[in-house]
Design goal:
The chain is α/β, with parallel strands linked by helices and about 190 residues long. The protein has a single domain, classed as 3-Layer(aba) Sandwich (Rossmann fold), CATH 3.40.50.300. About 35% of the residues lie in helices and about 20% in strands. The strands form two sheets. Strands 2-5-1-6-7-8 form a six-stranded parallel sheet, with helices on both faces. The protein has a two-stranded antiparallel ribbon with strand order 3-4. A hairpin with a 4-residue loop joins strand 3 and strand 4. Helix 2 crosses helix 7. It is globular. InterPro entries: MGD_biosynthesis_adapter, MobB_dom, P-loop_NTPase.
């Protein structure tokens, strides 16, 4: 049975940082930049992406797809250079974190809004903040596509109400530094050194 989020925190489980937002908010671009930044620091970074659409596990007519079509619940395809794990059922973020525990230093997860890990949330409009808060918990940082003046003009947007800083995506250096600092704060002291 997969460990619960709170068990991961207390037992020193794999640190997970989620990048969440609605379609076309820049999640993948931001995830790739933070993965590169952490990898450049010498960390072993794992990543996971939740796809809201159905995707094809493997090319039709390949041997591994035949295994799945004939009843295999999970199929592993491996070669001298790579491995792909295929499963015909959804996998929770906590299960993914458990599978990667001990193999990577941190997991950057794109999506999985309802999972209970620290999050960076991207918004294009102010009303998306409220929508995301209905679906997501533990937002530690908001990244906004709105320019800071437009954002501050909205009376309903008060950073204290959202319990996390709001940064303009146009200030790329601050965005990356803030996320990098957040990610590093999740690591255990032995990994940071």
């Amino acid at each position: 049975m997969p460990r619960d989020f709170y068990d991961d925190i207390t037992s020193g489980g794999l640190p997970v940082l989620q990048i969440v937002g609605f379609k076309d908010s820049g999640k993948t671009t931001l995830a790739c930049k933070i993965i590169a930044s952490l990898a450049n620091d010498g960390l072993k970074v794992g990543s996971a992406k939740h796809d809201a659409h159905r995707f094809q596990l493997d090319e039709p007519r390949t041997d591994s797809s035949k295994h799945l079509m004939h009843g295999s619940v999970e199929t592993v395809l491996t070669s001298n250079t790579a491995t792909r794990w295929m499963r015909q059922e959804p996998t929770s973020l906590s299960e993914i974190a458990e599978m990667l525990y001990g193999r990577v230093d941190i997991l950057i997860a794109e999506g999985f809004k309802s999972a209970h890990y620290p999050k960076v949330a991207l918004i294009r409009e102010t009303d998306q903040m409220e929508e995301l808060l209905q679906e997501a918990s533990d937002v530690r940082l908001w990244i906004s596509w709105l320019n800071p003046k437009k954002l501050s003009d909205h009376r309903e947007v008060n950073p204290q109400d959202y319990n996390a800083p709001i940064i303009s995506i146009h200030d790329e250096e601050t965005v990356l530094n803030s996320i990098h600092t957040l990610a590093m704060s999740l690591l255990s002291p032995d990994v940071k050194s």
